[in-house]
Structure formats: C-alpha cells, structure tokens
Amino acid sequence: MTNAAATPVLSVSHLTTSFLVDGEWRQVVRDISFDVMPGETVAIVGESGSGKSVTSLSIMRLLAAGSSRIEGQITLGGRDILSLSEREMRKVRGKDVAMIFQEPMTSLNPIFTIGRQISEALTCHGDISKADAKAETIRLLEKVRIPNAASRFDEYPHQFSGGMRQRVMIAMALASRPKLLIADEPTTALDVTIQGQILDLIKILQEEEGMSVLFITHDMGVVAEISDRTIVMYRGEAVETGETDDIFHRGKHPYTRALLSAVPRLGSMADRKWPLRFPIVDAATGERAEPVEIADTVDRRKTPILEVKNLVTRFDIHGGLLGRKTGAIHAVENVSFDLFQGETLSLVGESGCGKSTTGRSIMRLLDPNAGEVHLDGYDVMKLDSISLRQMRRSIQMIFQDPFASLNPRMSIGSAVAEPIIEHGLGTRAQARDKAADLLERVGLKADMMSRYPHEFSGGQRQRICIARALALDPKVIVADESVSALDVSIKAQVCNLLMDLQQSLNLAYLFISHDMAVVERVSHRVAVMYLGEIVEIGPRASVFENPQHPYTRKLMAAVPVPDPSRRGIKRNLSTDELKSPIRPVGYVAPVRNYREISTGHLVRLDEAA
Fold first, then answer.
1. Please, are residues 144 and 558 in contact by the beta-carbon 8 Å criterion?
2. N or C: less crowded end of the chain, CB within 10 Å?
3. pTM, 2 dp
4. 445, 447, 451, 440: which is closest to 412 by C-alpha?
5. Ramachandran angles phi, psi of 241, nearest 5°
6. Could you tell me which residues are beta bridge partners of residue 34?
7. Beta strand 601-605 pairing with 593-598
C-alpha cells in the first residue's frame, strides 16, 4: 500500500523528449507528468511507437546526448536528475534506480559468468570484498528463485533459459537495493508460464524490499495484475491517467477502450462453438466493430488435407576429441494428427516443446528421422527435390519475425511476386498484378508496392508476409508464432485477417503459438505439446473447458487476466525450467497411451496425470 502523504520516489513533470532527425528536432514524448510513490507500482501502457520506452530511457538518462534532448523536470529521491553530470548519474543508476529490459540476452555480456556480472554491480556501488560479493550474489540468485544458485555462479548467459536470464537481470537490478525498479517490457519475449513466474516474482520482491516499480508494457492483462495506477500513452502523449481499476472499468479515452477491447480473455469462448473474430475499437473515435463468429465449414467426412503419423525429429549431439555422437535432442517424438480443409489446429506449448520443429518438419525444411506426412496427395517423406518444390505450393509458412522474413533490399511488390515468378505460374506482369491484388486483400494498398520493408510497421510487415504466403494459392498455412511479436490491437487485426482469409479461401491453418488466450479464440481444435510430444488434443471447447493434463492446466493458469481485482493474487507457479529433451545414445522413447475423454478429446496417460 502507498502513503498518499509521502514524498514521491520519482516525480516527472512536463517531460518532453526530442530526437534530431535530418537536422530537425522531432518530439517523440510530449509534456508527460506523473509521480511514483513509495511501494507503488505504476504502469505505462501503449503500443510500439507510443513513447513509453523513450520515457523510461529519459528517466535513466540513457539516450545518446548528441541526438536527443530532454526537457522538463525529473526528480528521483529529491535529486534533479537532469542537472547531474554523467559521472554523478552513473552512481545513481543501479544504486537509486535500476532497470530491466525486454531481451535479457542483449543486456548480459556473453563472455562473463553470471556471478561475475552480478558481483560487479555490487562492487561498483559499495565497498565490499570479493568473497562477500560472491556470497551476496548467491543470496540474490536464490532470492529470484534460481535453482542450485551456488553451482550456477560460474555459468554463462547462454547456459540459462530465457526466463532464468530474466531472473538474473532482476537479481542484478536488485543488487544495490534501489528505491525504484523500471521494468521495460520484461515479460514480452517470454512464454506464458515464465511470464507468470516473473510477475509473481516482482510482486514478492516488491513486498520484501518495499521498492517502487515503474512497469512498461503493451499487455493490458499484465497491467491489471501488477499496477496500482496506470498511464495510457498514445503517439507520445499521456491520454489517460488514473487508478488501474478506474482505467479498466471506467476508461474514457477511445484509445484506452481500443486497447482493452483487443485483449483476448481466457474463458470468453465458453458459450461459442466456432472461432470468433476480435472486436476492434477505433483508437480515434471509440467506435466498436462487434465480433463476428466464423461459420464452421470443416467437413470431417472428407480426407484430411494433412495427415501426420508418428513424426520423429531429432538433432544429434557430438562431443569429445573425435566428435562422436554422445546423444540427441528429441525435439519431436511420435507426433500424430490430422488437419482438414478450412480448419485451424493450434499447436500450443512453451519454447522448446517442439511445436515449431513440428511445423518445419512437415514442410521438410528440416528432415525428420521417421514418420509419415501426407499433404494434398503428396507422400512428403519420399519426395525428391523437384517434387518437394512442387509440394510447397500447397503449404506455406508465416514466421514470427516478419522483418527477418523479408529481404530488406527488395521492394514488397517484388517480394510478394517472387514466388509466382520462381514457380513459373505467370509472367512478371501477371505476377505483379496478382501481388497488387494480394496486398489489397490483406488490407494494404497496391500503390505501396514500390516501398521497402523498413518503411512499414510490424503489423503491416506481417500482412505483407501473409500476402506472400498466399501467392501460390496454398491449401495449408503454417503460422509459426505469427502474431506473438505484435502489439495487442495489431495482433487482433492480424488474427481477424487470418480468419477472414480462411473463410473466403477455405484455408487450413496449423497455428503454432504459446498464447493460450489467442489460441482459444481462433482454433477449431487444439494440441498441447510438452517435450516433443502431444499430451492433450481435442476440439477447442473440450480442451479449454475440461483440460485434463496437468501441463494444459498449468499453461491456462499462467495466462494474465485483464481484471484489476486479481492484482494481489499470486499463482505460485513452479519455477522449474522446462526439462531437457536431450537423451543418451540408444534411448528408446516409451510407448504412450491415450484416454479418450469425449469425442476427439484425447489425453496422454503418464505418471504426472
């Protein structure tokens, strides 16, 4: 609880931040004012480009001095931050205010051990011996729930999972017991269960240390669970500020309502039989387009467009002086499922569960070790290189990072037309006409064809990748985490687009995701993967309304719920890392048995169930 009469830990008054672009100063944050009280959590929420991260970097004075200008007043613990020299500011960072970033791997030095990096944070801000620094570092690692902390002191960042690396960053931030912790999108890149653990951890540490938290995110579910007060930013300005409960239940600004409407709520599909479009609220006017249920056109009496039987994909591990095989990563182990025309089957699970490897193995982007894949009349496992090229006209893939999927030197018109030309399906003029039509179909304009990928937003780039995937008129699309990197309202728009295209073109989707709330909204059927195996599969309603496997229940329990009344609730999720899929040479996978709970709803029987 915060004390209204107390002095703010952080006071920001009329903050305006500008960047020097082409010789002109352009304001990216305009006239922002707010306070953070002792023990309080304040969330700054908004989409990419809203100015929320620039606000946090301005407070930390981490923007390049020559190309940025910070105006206004920033007071931290009674000190005027903007009047400090760089040397004085270095003493403030880490000691009085600490920051954790979105991607921990870019914040940790890969050539130094975890222990050394945290110890350095201690020795920089205090007179402490090497032995005491090591002891305190181990205590901090234990505090952030790193298993076997003492034995992991001398390990390197690459030896930790994403969630554990984020815990290390939190330990480093807490090293000098700062009064304020700034958390800039600390859970965005994490799986839903790891995200839940990090949110619980921040709540617990805040209670134990009594520190204030400035939490920056675009996820309204996270905001509801962690913040006392919320600041909504839109195009560099604070458009609404208030108690989190008021923002959620009585939000006035159209953009606030747009953010809230786009958040998928787990359980909202309980009375729905088929996938449901996301409601879209216009950020400028507040006008709401009501969600429309997608009519079911799946005919399961016909032959599946895709049949996968006992698929196995392993990656050999070599070691020793002679480079002999020492084991294998069992990435996909005896996976079987069918996919029908017009249907969405979602593969869901955490990073490392094998879902992306399954998608790539089906397309033969990776060569499986065993199993059968039948796609649109092709026996995929037996195809030569020429036949494989023809087969890929029937199945296309949309990847997680659209920028990495597009050639930065190729205009988007050329990128969309290229598959048509390469497969000899038309002349350059015909390919260009079809590319223009496809861009229009995904909500872009044909006159954008001459532009390059860097000239588009993330959501627009993903639409371009969808247009390119449609260029060969495929029957199946593998969408591999295709919306996980997008802001919440853009995610809703792209999901609606995918559902509309499915209905108009009768597409089949293998939708790969770790976002259970999105999966519930878009799926006909769901398969839950854990350590390379399907542990539960069935119709969407059956799996979500009657989950049987403990891992399925764990995934669902970790989803942030956009309800501020849950702010004090802790999930008490296990901090164990996902078990290793590495097996020794000669390992034989056990035969799995499944029980049918209801029609088409199967759950794996094992010791954990």
1. no
2. N
3. 0.84
4. 451
5. -140, 140
6. 12
7. antiparallel
